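User: I'm curious what two different proteins look like when written out as structure tokens. Can you demonstrate?

Assistant: Sure. I'll show them one after the other, since each token string lines up with its own sequence. Here's the first protein:
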Amino acid sequence: MAQNRSARKLKQSPADDPDLRAHIESLGLRSECDYVAWCREHGFSPRTSKHWKERLRERTFATRAAADARLARKKNETRRPEKIIESIFRGEIRAQDVTHPALQIVCEAAKDRRQGGWARQGLLNLLIHVSRHAPELISSDFVIAAHGRVEANSFIAALIALARHRADWVRPLDEWKPRSHNVRSQFASLTRHLLARYPVPAFMDSAWFKAPSLNAERQQRWFIHLGRGENIRTADLPLAYTKRMSHHFMQAPSDLCVEAALRWGQIHALGGNAALVKAVVATDLGTSFTQDEFWTTVLQFFIANPMLDRSHIGPIVDYIQHVKFTSEDVFVAPGRIERQPPAQPNFSMKGRTAEALLRQVERWHQTLAKKEQPKAEWIPSGIAGFEFIEGSEKGENLRIWTLKELLSAKALVAEGRTMKHCVASYARSCAHGETSVWTLEVESIEGRRKVLTVEVNRRSRTICQARGKCNIEPGDKHRGILRRWAEKAQLTLASYV
């Protein structure tokens, strides 16, 4: 009887034996016939009924073989990338056939036939020339910190964007050769060779590292506009620009993105300085230029009050944005919500003093803290939390740093009360999945205390704001903790944080 049961077990097919079926799938095979053939090819027993140790040896062999093959492909891709690129455009290699992330992006670009054969050929010529003379540019590494960890923020994506402007090239591609080993310098040299007859500021390079959009296209057109010797004032800017602003814009630091450079030119022309630019760029005004005629009066107010602590800039901008432009959902009855207009749509900076405005901001913060909040909760962002342990218990200097996500309006209110700032106003952005708010705490023998409230832009995965109690900026130690978290969670720490 036992022998009959054993015989029936030996005759089981993969459909009847879930362990065998799972084993065959783990080897990347489809059927029992494929498995038997694979075993004979690689020197294993063709029997299908095996001890788990035998199957483990087969999986180990397959994993090692796959790793070796992947390593061989990677070496080949690195050694002769132009050959791989040519094969991609001939349709001989697909994204799943390459290991290099940049070449996978090339595979997707090669499939895009919306711009016709001439554009596709232009892209191929550009990639082949660059791979021969500056192979470091065939890279998917992130470049511009302010743009976050998105695929477009890479040299390979920027090259694809350059190819889209093939009709605007002013010099032959074949005449370009890099004169530097620095990758950023190589890209800057290439863009100016192809698109510029006149000097273009270094910060304008950031226009090529934005995700494809109307805004990205517009900024790339500004690059071409300046390269032709035109004045930035005659471009389609989102704000009114004077000659003085244009002059300061061209002098903006190279580490700024284009939006920040626009604010740099505007604020310096109005009489502000770099410290004010840094504070303003850290707010929504760093990327938004809507209602700029009004916001210019706010900038003039900041400039007219140079002794105003720059740590108040962010809270003041948040307050003004809320009372003048933000509509609110009001719960009037169970299951019934009404939309109410902004509290002060006619808000003006005329006649205001810094002291009075700060009192209004403080009262607003107190109102947010006391206000009955709707029972709002939201799902986690998917960003990994963080724990960092330093020191030792024996040395009596043990400290445990933790970053935890705040997932309800109630938690934001509690955070705002403890830290004395307006993070409670972020409930809507968190609920809509635009923003993720975190709290940095440290625990030691003295107990646990809150250190920072941290804002993350979920779309760009960028740590875009961090504030301590009463909106104090983070110190070097705290920035170090944020950098560790950014590296682990694949986030970008904005340069202005």
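Here's a second, unrelated protein for contrast:
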Amino acid sequence: MAVARGIAEAMRAGSWIRRMFERGREMKARLGPDAVFDLSLGNPLLEPPPEFREALREIAAEAPAGRHRYMTNAGFLEVRAAVADHLARTGLMRTDADHVVMCCGAGGGLNIALKALLDPGDEVLVLAPYFVEYLYYISNHAGHPVVVQTDEAFLPDLAAIAAALTERTKVLLLNSPNNPTGRVYPASLLKALAALLEDHARRTGREVWVLSDEPYREMLHAGGTAPSMAMAYSRTLQIYSWSKSLSIPGERIGYVAVDPSAPGAAELFDGLVFATRILGFINAPGTMQRAAARLLAVPVDMGPYRAKRERVVAGLKAAGYDLVAPEAAFYVFPKAPGGDDVAFCERAMDEEQVLVVPGAGFGRPGHFRLAFCAEDRVIDEGLKRLAKMAGKMPARRQNG
């Protein structure tokens, strides 16, 4: 076997999102692109704002020597200072340029953070439903994932988290606003979670670091910005990407920020920089760093996504689907009719040519994710076909 056993097994298990994407591509080639209604992939529909193109034009027109050579692994100092100043002005985090590392998107940021923090066998609490790649990121760095279910409204269950904490727990991975549910964790709940983690540290001597994954932070349907765990708990690494807010996921640019007041902050910053180098990222893309620094105050245009959200929530509810309306991002996570999410998604694909993703891939079976960052014709026809599916699924048989 050419491929390592662990990778071969992971490939077999696969990412449901990518699996549906590949099935959709095959179906589009066979049936025609207009005959398939793909609501599976969270790929931003909107183009980047005009300020993005203007920033690129300005950067391209500048021609100082050495602009495209190697830089410090943490990224350009002036960019890190701009990010730190922006976080201070917006009240999202207390940090400075010497505690910000520019990274290759949030995925790159999570990997350098886990590499810097984890010893083999350290436990990482992951709240379900979770972004599908989290478990792979943890295994990349020899950590042990411990999945903790959220409540019925997809909000953190403090009692369940408390029960899952052990002396081996090193990291809690948070994602708010959440993919796949679109839920936003309220500031009061984050403060209560911080108190829980502080109490755990006092009782066990084991400090838990929080990785707060925040790429949808400005994408609230009611406006404003989601609260950050970094303002409630100093041992938080705030991880951000401009992939969704600026509609540039292919450009791979983000940051990891550390609170200078956290114990061991300087050492952790050095660890993040070292991990950036040895994992082969070397540094975040230089041109994109400069562009991001010029776009920190550009607002996110949520109007189109807000209209799509209203259409999707109303359409699914009218068809009888049970769901929690998303507060942010461009996903909704309804219950699967009949309870068998995999069977439902496969039938929707085979019989109605609609692609949605089983909740099992996000650690929450019995649901499915619909991404509404799609063209209106795809959403509208997809909703019609999902309405047909609502009555087709038999109730899942219970054992015993």
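A detail about the second structure: The chain has two domains: 5-48+301-389, 70-294.
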